[in-house]
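My current task is to audit a protein record that another person submitted. My question to you is simply how this chain folds and whether the tokens agree. This is what I was given:
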Amino acid sequence: MAVTNGVVQLKQTKKELFLSKRKVVFWDRVKLGSLILEHIGLLFAPFYFTWNAFWVALTLGVLTLPIGISLSYHRNLSHRSFKLPKSLEYLFAYFGLHAVQGDPMFWVSVHRYHHQFVDTERDPHSPIEGFWFSHINWVFQHNYLWEKCGKSNNIMDLKKQAYYRFLRKTHALHLLGLALLLYVAGGLPHLIWGMSVRLAVGHHGTFAVNSVCHTWGKRPWNTKDLSRNNWVVGFIAFGEGWHNNHHAFEFSARLGLEWWQLDIPWYIIRLLEYLGLATNVKVPTEIQKRKYSSKIHNEFQQTHE
């Protein structure tokens, strides 16, 4: 009887795994289709330009990228670089949802695996598998990511919260709702600029951190990976391009460590801290900086050669 139950359970597990993989393939195709659609919309954007549509796209872009992705998904949820009141944490995470880079649990899981396995065969998006894989192709290969990294068992802190489970189950409805709202409010100009233009710019800005910032740029810190500071991506991605800084001090709420390194989310965090809304804000100490300084590391090597 025990053997029979074991066989039944094994068949059930295989069936669930098969259905789960088919579901992932379906969503990979949906993502591919949506990316193609947003780039088609980008081609038509000049013909549907209005200043109202432009300002709608810019406003949504600020809410969803430097606040939603960089401040919330990345620094707050992935690395716990600072604390926010739950109401504000949830609001900012909701902004991030509308950047259409996945729900908070998906994004955080992938990013934590990136740091755990950075620039190895198990990294979800490293240029060691090719520049275009790290830039965009990885987005459509989630079965492959499962095989490399495993399932999302690195986000138990988020899985315990009903809000993030709710966003995972319903995220597509929220995106469709925003698209419908934009169309009703301003027709095709608002839809194309508020969705296609905004998302295409945001996607490639974020993707460039994975690809460009692990390929070209400067390495002021002695990290065991390919991360680099790239000022162009630093500008385009609102401060996320100071990627070698980030990999040296991944706990830090501040990525632009020099005064001239633009870092808009950091300025917002400082404002929130001043208002008493952001607490336990983490930044690297001078001792920690000296430990990872490439200049000091090179001087040490030259002294001992």
In short: The mean pLDDT is 90. The radius of gyration is 21 Å.
